[in-house]
Amino acid sequence: MSHETQPDGRTDGRTDDRTGDRPGGIPDVALRQALVAAGSADGLLVATDFDGVLAPFDVDPMAVRPVAGGLEALRELAAHPATTVALVSGRDLGTLRTLTGVADGEPIVLIGSHGAESSDDAVRSAMEAAAVTAEDQALLDSLTAEITTLVTERHPAAGLEHKAAAIVVHTRGLSPDIADAAVAEAREVALAHPGVKVLKGKSVLELSVSHADKGSAVTALGRARGATARVYFGDDVTDEDVFTRMTRPEDVTVKVGRGSTAARYRVEDEMAVVEALEQLAAARRPAP
Ligand SMILES: O=P(O)(O)OC[C@H]1O[C@H](O[C@H]2O[C@H](CO)[C@@H](O)[C@H](O)[C@H]2O)[C@H](O)[C@@H](O)[C@@H]1O
């Protein structure tokens, strides 16, 4: 049986999505310069994906937490004038809030369910067409029932995650053959339901009733806040929707880890993301 290929070029069931030990720092001089330039823009948008970018992967999707320094750097950035900060995720809004600890009223925008949910009015209004309707909910309910039966009866080692707009089959840590079979059969179930969007992520198959995309949500936020420079960090297929939409000369798009990408720059891991955020925050501080 051929193994399900991951967006980062690995095969399903492997638990390490990273490139190995890193020496520290951001070796790419061009990226460092781009961050300094973005940091001095009149209006800055800094947005980052969550899993695999700000939080290391875990077999248990609810056990992940942001890497040390990540939230601190985002909070400092959000406190600077003319600076908008957003956390953007395939997680649903409630889960993103729980896992990041970002409280209601904090000046960090949360964008969940790949853009279908947000704490920001402008994003919600721009993404209204992608919000989950009663009809979508009925579709999700019947899809969830079928996928739950499939996983319980045929692939009990796989995990299930219930989200506001999707049901997700998790295969991290499983042997490739078991993971491939679970993913292939879940995909078959989804394909029998017109209107269901199938997303193959890293050791996950997400079956969604929303057609939101992160690119539309992030660019809507940038527009609403008058951002003249936009910075985005992402690691997975759904982040490519942002990379392909952010192509102005002032934009800084950063792919985290391996795999083909439309991003302009690349860093190795979550700690490099924190370093980049700290550089941006330093560039944003008023001169003494
Ligand atoms: O858009 P993101 O914030 O990157 O979310 C993408 C998916 O992330 C989660 O799955 C990933 O992280 C899990 C926890 O480390 C891991 O077990 C799984 O293998 C990864 O694919 C989340 O569970 C999904 O719902 C998100 O869509």
UniProtKB/TrEMBL annotation:
<dbReference type="InterPro" id="IPR044651">
    <property type="entry name" value="OTSB-like"/>
</dbReference>
<protein>
    <recommendedName>
        <fullName>Trehalose 6-phosphate phosphatase</fullName>
        <ecNumber>3.1.3.12</ecNumber>
    </recommendedName>
</protein>
<comment type="similarity">
    <text>Belongs to the trehalose phosphatase family.</text>
</comment>
<dbReference type="Pfam" id="PF02358">
    <property type="entry name" value="Trehalose_PPase"/>
</dbReference>
<keyword id="KW-0460">Magnesium</keyword>
<dbReference type="InterPro" id="IPR023214">
    <property type="entry name" value="HAD_sf"/>
</dbReference>
<dbReference type="InterPro" id="IPR006379">
    <property type="entry name" value="HAD-SF_hydro_IIB"/>
</dbReference>
<dbReference type="InterPro" id="IPR036412">
    <property type="entry name" value="HAD-like_sf"/>
</dbReference>
<keyword id="KW-0479">Metal-binding</keyword>
<comment type="function">
    <text>Removes the phosphate from trehalose 6-phosphate to produce free trehalose.</text>
</comment>
<keyword id="KW-0378">Hydrolase</keyword>
<feature type="region of interest" description="Disordered">
    <location>
        <begin position="1"/>
        <end position="27"/>
    </location>
</feature>
<feature type="compositionally biased region" description="Basic and acidic residues">
    <location>
        <begin position="1"/>
        <end position="21"/>
    </location>
</feature>
<dbReference type="InterPro" id="IPR003337">
    <property type="entry name" value="Trehalose_PPase"/>
</dbReference>
<dbReference type="GO" id="GO:0004805">
    <property type="term" value="F:trehalose-phosphatase activity"/>
</dbReference>
<comment type="pathway">
    <text>Glycan biosynthesis; trehalose biosynthesis.</text>
</comment>
